[in-house]
Amino acid sequence: MRLDSVDLHIIAESGQCFRWQPIAEKTYLIHRGQGAACFEQVGKTELICQASFGPLGGQNHEASWYDYFHGDMDYKALRDQLVKEDSRLAPIIDASEGLRILKQDPLEMIITFMMSANNHIPRIKQFVHQLSKGYGTPVGTFKDHTLYGFPTLEQLGQMTEANYRALGAGYRSRYFESTVKTLIASEDFDQWHLLSDEDLLARLKGLMGVGQKVAECIALFGYGRWNSFPVDTWIKRIAEDWLPQEALKSEKLIREAFYQRYGKNRGLVQQYFFYYYRNLGGKP
DNA sequence: GTCCAGGTGGTCA
DNA sequence: TGACCACATGGA
Questions:
Q1: First-to-last C-alpha distance (Å) of chain A
Q2: According to the model, what pLDDT value does residue A59 have?
Q3: Nearest by Cα to A269 from A283, A281, A255
Q4: How many whole angstroms separate alpha carbon A28 and alpha carbon A41?
Q5: Strand C nucleotides below 7 A of a protein CB?
Q6: Pairing of strands A35-42, A27-32
Q7: Residue nearest to nucleotide B6 (CA to C1')
Q8: CB burial of residue A1 (10 Å; 0-12, 13-18, 19+)
């Protein structure tokens, strides 16, 4: 698969995916909803698919994984446009070349980012791995690794609050049980991708354990809504150096200021910020 | 022991 | 609405 620019390591460390596992140099085992694959990066633009499993393992798997990586996006044009909007972004964007936003499974994003609230990334990864291993369906094996699909809504519906607690979900356990029930009862959950940005966020925020920030993460990574701009602890810190003093008074003001500052692809800016400051130790 | 983590729900003014 | 606070858990 050829992409205009891709760096698997940067994507893996960008805090959007929690079921990527490095198994060799520039090679990752990638779980995605009910599917999984092994990709090796060659150069800066090519991914070799060593194996593909699950519903995506059939004849259309290439197109489906291409879609997962938003292969149709012209990142050079996106980066140029963002620097044009704000030249101060240039060094941050340059340092993150190969970062891409993934199009992930909505249900997996809901559960994963509910778990992310007031939590550490390594613990989030551990939780989703154990959840998939314990309650998902095995989809194949690759080099001694058994691959698991993320639990379906039906499988999650079989779980109790105690099951989540045993996986280390802590006080969030009752939120999971509640939200899964809500989704099962909603009947139109599989149509949410058709909703307007505003309606989608409203539906997401109606779920127990999903507030503004988590809803925007789900919209960005699960529904391809690149105009989302999740304000987390990192963005709050970064804001101190990027926004005027009067915009720092509340989370709401910070979000509104960034919304105004950047356009329809502000979600990508947010990812560049997150990666640059968290992983490269960039000082705001 | 204390602080923190890709925050949210509940309460009270 | 907005300002607090409690919340499970485990690593630094």
A1: 36
A2: 67
A3: A255
A4: 9
A5: 2-3, 7-11
A6: antiparallel
A7: A232
A8: middle
